[in-house]
Amino acid sequence: MGQFRAQIPAVRDSSRPHWSVMIPVYNCARYLRRTLESVLDQAPSEAEMQIEVVDDCSIDHPERIVEEIGKGRVQYFRQPQHQGHISNFATCLLRSKGNWVHQLHGDDYVLPGFYASHYEHITRNPQVGASFCQNFSINEREQYISISPLIQADAGIIPNFLYELARVQKIYTPSIVVKRSVYEELGGFDTRLSWCEDWEMWTRISANYPIAYIPEALAVYRVHSGSNTARYSKNAEKIEDLARGIALINEYLPASKRREYRQWSRNFYAEAWAMRDAANALAEGDKKLARKYIKLVFELANRPVVYVQAMKLWLQTI
To answer: How far is Cα 299 from Cα 248, in angstroms, rounded to an integer?
Structure first.
């Protein structure tokens, strides 16, 4: 497992629940009420579902929301000091007791039928290591932005999913549930990554287990200015971390496929993401950030047409 992934010991309690809904939070209390209500509205008994908020030393008092909404049904754990999100994720996994773990970030939520649908599909396909569904994306004003692309029309195991997932991230965290024994075998999220640790984790799982899919949007991912994504867009850390993630993910592929898949992913994120972020930074008047993104385009891409487009943007930063 190595030094970069938390070891998750097995749970020995024979009376453990089926679900552990683990909710990591850090200064997102304004969204937590919706998150908790969405789980509680469809939660089975405490014997069947653990629900716990794991607070990474927030200053906006999420414990008040837990007490108000949870009414004793939701457990609350506060870190003794700020850990950072990946260490907080590890605490979530370590504190989970259920056979299946749903890590639901405190700014996301689920829709009616989420747990029942996943239960049906993982029961029908006991060999799977994880199950995920489509999801909606919304903004901080609860406005609809998009729906995740349909991967396949029918519910069930996705064939050869490793090869799809190794190219580009396709799974939003609120949409996926993972068998706890998979975390016990493969370890926690990789601390070498700062933003795309979820992509690496899901790909690691797909390299070892079948993954089931539900072609219905039953989870909601929130895009907002206080998220890690927003923060890392302001300094290009998002793209830099993708480059690190691509290198790690590439190792899960057969040696004969690695070069092709590595460059495909690097081209995709250079063209579809770094170029866009460079143009956005330039439009906002941040030439320094635009140049940083453009340098990443040159580092990642290997297509002359992209170099030409990047050079045109670069000239605008001079």
So the answer is: 17
Q: Token pair for residue 252? A: 């899960």
Q: How far apart are CA 230 and CA 315, in angstroms?
A: 26
Task: Note whether residue 1 is domain-resident.
Answer: no
Task: Output the pTM of the full model.
Answer: 0.97
Q: How far is CA 107 from CA 111, 159, 226, in A?
A: 14, 31, 10
What is the C-alpha separation between 291 and 174, in angstroms, rounded?
33
Query: To the nearest 10°, the Cα dihedral for 243, 189, 79, 81?
Result: -40
- Residue ending a domain, among 196, 222, 248, is 222
Query: b/e map of 70-84 (b: 16 or more CB within 10 Å)?
Result: beeebbbeebeeebe
Instruction: Indicate the residue among 162, 194, 222 that finishes a domain.
Output: 222
Q: Do the Cβ atoms of 244 and 193 come closer than 8 Å?
A: yes
Considering the chain, what percentage of its residues have pLDDT values greater than 90? 94
The pLDDT tens digits for 261-278 are 999 999 999 999 999 999
